[in-house]
Amino acid sequence: MRYLLILAFALALAVWAGHRAAQTPKGDASEEEFPPLPKSRAELMIEAVPDWFRPILSESAKDFSDGEVRRILERGIKEDVAIARCFMVQFIASGKHGEAAYREIPALLEGYRLDECSVRPTILGVLYRDGRGVAKDPERARHHFRKYVIYFGSDAESANFIVKSTFGLDSDIDITNELAEAAKWFEELEKRTPKIQLIALAKRYLAGDGVPKDADIGYKLLWSIGLDKHTAESAYLLYEGFRDRAFSYSQQLSDSSVDLLYVAAKRGHAQARKEMGLRMLEGATKENSRLFFAYAYFLAAKQAGATDVDEYLERLKIRIADPNLDQSALEWIGAGRLPPAS
After folding, report:
1. Overall domain count for the chain
2. Cα dihedral sign, 103-211-234-306
């Protein structure tokens, strides 16, 4: 076995860690001055494994036979250890267990997000491209290579090394062309597709309407639109993805979520206006004007069709006690001067 599982997964985690480290502030200040970044989903899954599974992640794995490793992984799958199926896939993909074993892989990978099992897209891309254990399906293969490119880019050298580490360092697998084609697909969409069509395609991916249901690709297409070009609907849709961390790379760009909410609110989205009002209530006083701006946002939400803001409006009227409140708020709304909620 000799570190096969450890090597493949460690390589994948190293790539994720590299992206996370890129988000860490640089400068002369000591590292302790910066809050730690949230842990990735894969890191949390590994931290949560039970003690009997943990040897698979350590140097002691080198002393295990393939049969012992398989027994631990099978127990992990049976007892719902979150990372076990991903490790089993890498165990099977090593090539020692025959082509027929590859048939198990798609089912084992079902339900994993990219940030939970980062080898998923390249393994499935190779299987469907080459017909290993599954029927050849070029379209499915393209889909999985596109998923890889979303987060990791089209760097074929590092991708090939990770793939070879999974299928075996002596394999002749090369995914250079597929990654280049995936990168070109995104580039062409972003450059040449009208905004409304791009939003429609993103919504199809989010719903699985005629294409594979895929949050990563759907939100990637929305992200490519650019903050100042969004509609109220698309800005709020992308904001929801960030808010709910609904896609694999969402935590890397989370600072953009409030900006998206503000764009959606300015462009008339009722729920976005309500949420801006709720944000304004945080730390609000008459002196800092946040109470007034909260009221104005709730009033704007009602103008846009929200039906659940009346209670906020009535309570704020009591706190602010200004006979000209509605007129003042309407003037700010009409002039488009409501500020973002920091």
Report:
1. 3
2. negative
